[in-house]
Write a structure and sequence with these properties.
This protein is α+β, with helices and mostly antiparallel strands. Helix content is 27%, strand content 40%. The strands form 2 sheets. A 4-stranded antiparallel sheet has the order 3-4-5-6, covered by helices on one side.
């Protein structure tokens, strides 16, 4: 299971206005200079912190965040008793969280 977003995904979230990640995804030596290169990327935990527990809807019940694993596929959705408002599924939890965050940001929810 992947623990971090890719560097392109991380750059996209920073571009969308999220705080820069605090987790170190990789450390590599800089040969000939005697230093190191530290690359940061968002973790599953950091991504979860961006998602609200509920999404309020005008004159309706709020949609609640649900995360499930079924047949090897992670699904992240916001749903209420009437149905699902947003849903993404993938084998990698980190990628599903990313998709949901980008969608909610694009809709102005977060």
């Amino acid at each position: 299971m992947k623990q971090y977003l890719t560097f392109d995904q991380t750059a996209k979230l920073i571009e969308l206005g999220f705080e820069k990640p605090s987790s170190i995804a990789s450390v590599e030596p800089i040969y000939g200079m005697g230093g190191i290169s530290v690359a940061k990327a968002y973790t599953i935990g950091e991504l979860l912190s961006f998602l609200p527990e509920n999404i309020a809807k005008e004159n309706e019940m709020p949609s609640t965040l649900n995360i499930s694993l079924l047949n090897g596929e992670w699904c992240v959705q916001y749903a209420d008793f009437l149905g699902t408002d947003f849903e993404f599924c993938n084998t990698e939890l980190v990628d599903v969280l990313y998709d949901m965050i980008v969608k909610l940001k694009g809709k102005g929810v977060i």
